[in-house]
Amino acid sequence: MASSYLVLINNVLRDLNEVELTSSNFSSSRGIQTAVKDYVNRAIDDIINADTEWPFTIVSKTFTTTAGTRLYTRSALGVTNTKTVDYDSFTFLEASDKKEVKLDYLSFSEYLDSYHERDTDPTGNSRAIPEFIYENPDLSIGLSAVPDKSTYTVKYFYYATHTVLSSATDTSLIPDRFETVIIERAKYYAYTLRGDVQNAQLAQVQFEKTIKRMRVELINKQIYMRAV
To answer: Considering only CA atoms, which of 79, 32, 47, 91 is closest in space to residue 211?
Structure first.
């Protein structure tokens, strides 16, 4: 189980030989305690931004089409915490008695060259079942053809950003077995604040080592097929 925000902060304060916080005085922190609160959140940001597709940040999303609407903004879809969208994961369901099909990804330039004129036909005669997905320059999600019904279901995955921890009981997205990387990164900022260059460098080295191990274990996996 992931450690609470309070536990993460106290782990850093303990290594710094500073007074730890309790649940009762958490909101009245002072000095280095308050700084470490910020550093823990900054550390989590750094970890999540160290790679675009950490598996612990993936979120499954579903939305229903609106007839005549080709662009769907992140705010309209309720996904303002999106870091990157997995455009290879989009599937489309016409109805509950139909099979789910994959939507093919188009770059925006491909979309403009081949389908934009059709999809912006003001008569609406080109509306149909969507076959393609693309990303608009404003980061909204585009469907082509423009949906002709408001009953279609689109499913996809996206990678979420860090939500700032604020309550003592909040927990982060980072898997608990890698929580030391949060501590090391927060200590790096604390030592830098103190002007302790040597310990800041040591914390940075440990941070980079753990990030590398996380990539190996969580992302750079080799999938082997066994003969049967």
So the answer is: 47
Asked if residue 40 has pLDDT above 70, the reply is yes
Q: Is the pLDDT of residue 224 over 70?
A: no
**Sheet strand arrangement including 141-144:** 71-72, 141-144, 132-135, 104-106
Rounded (5°) CA angle 168-170-171: 130
Contact between 64 and 151 under an 8 Å Cβ cutoff? The reply is: yes
Predicted confidence band of residue 35 (pLDDT cuts 50, 70, 90):
very high
Q: Reply yes or no on whether the pLDDT at 101 is more than 80.
A: yes
CA torsion angle 9 14 16 19 (round to 10):
80
Nearest to 106 by CA among 124, 118, 96, 122: 118
CA distances from 116 to 62, 74, 85, 87, 216 (A): 24, 21, 21, 19, 41
